[in-house]
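Name: Peptidyl-prolyl cis-trans isomerase
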Amino acid sequence: MRKLIALVIAASLMVILSFSMALAEKPGPGPVVVMETSEGTMMIMLDEKKAPKSVENFLRYVDEGFYNGTVFHRVISGFMIQGGGFDENMRRKDTHEAITNEANNGLENLRGTIAMARTPQVDSATSQFFINTVDNSFLNYRDSSDRGFGYAVFGRVIRGMDVADRIEGVKTNARNNMPLKNVVIEKVFRYKDK
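Structure predicted for Peptidyl-prolyl cis-trans isomerase:
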């Protein structure tokens, strides 16, 4: 009987140990940021496992308060909302150096994801980002050419997608897709559970 109890205990310990090891290897949810805008609040979970450089870069700007008082300066219905580069007077903000494009990380430009905005040059992203309001598969990584490299997704909206939809619906200047009335990113900060 004692041998049986000892075997059951040993087997239970092995199961608990293997479960604990599996948990240690499996990454938990990434950091979450809160984005308070003039249209409401969004919460965005970042994927630091698949997009470590993009997340580190974004959080650097968040921690510096860089995004506070910036605007969504490019809004295209049925596509995306873009911000993080201009203040309320449409002055371009000074940024840190550009980062390596992580578009080949397996994350797709699906509705609700956040990705790094860039110029036609592959490794040119700095502070600007966009939130996909629809699935935009044509922005995904296809190949390593300038045209095929795509845009790096580094997180997704987990609460407040209705806010992104509301921003998407604002009236814009037909010439440059700029909102006629500022949509302000009032504050962006890391979410901390209390």
